[in-house]
Amino acid sequence: MIDIHRLRVFRAVIADGSIAGAAVGLGYTASAVSQHMAALQRETGLTLVERRGRGLVPTDTGRILADRSATVFHSIAEVDSLVADLRSGRTGNLSIEYFSSAGAAWIPPVIAVLTREFPDVRMDLRLFELREDSTAADIEIFVARTSDDEPGTIRLLDEPYLAVVPADSEYAARAAIPLSDLRDAVWVDNDAARGPCRENVLAACATVGFSPSFRVQTYDYPTAVRFVAEGVGVTVIPRLGLGQLPPSVRAVPLVDPTPMRHVALRVSDRCPDNPTVIRAVELLRARAAA
Fold this sequence. Notes:
The protein has about 290 residues and is of the alpha/beta class. It has nine helices and twelve strands.
């Protein structure tokens, strides 16, 4: 069995690129780090690093081991967290998966109430965009692909998309913009992952006979807004995702048609009667209706 401590030292060396730097970070002597590295290579029978100039770089084999071992240390961190929770008496757990714009608007105040009302419950928050674990959360907040309610889901919000445009553009003074008027505009994409939020916009554009001309691709709403603020183009964002807009942009309603986003939540079959889950759903519905 591989020695976990030596594996941790190896990852530190790879991250720093030198034995001396890793030694400083770990609080060891350089000699001790070298001994751990040599022992790990003997233990595995693999050449894990090689010298390049004055530093060390992983071999292809070493890079694979370093990458794959990340999950080991993630699991150890979870066990450490569990032990800390058990030591302090927190034996319950509530997991909530959410997408970023819902997280920014709803999750902090909801969790603030839950931690006060259920101090012994550990909160496990998962951002959908960074999902690694396929295990379903107790509560999932998601963007529904249609306006029809799916079985077992609770509708939270139907919200319009707005055009975010430069404040000095001809669009900014309008009370509303027909979607077809953006046919020839330069668009800034805000969902390069091509998820349901982007699909809603593309479907609405298709109904008026065009496909947006995306000049820049970004991965989130705040970054797209910054490009608009610099005059690169326009972007289309659901109301919940607007956040605090800079003074150099305007958010203008879209009409004919108005693209819509449908936000819902799903409760896992394993915990429908859990008091913490019931209270969390109640709080989320209240935030969505506010």
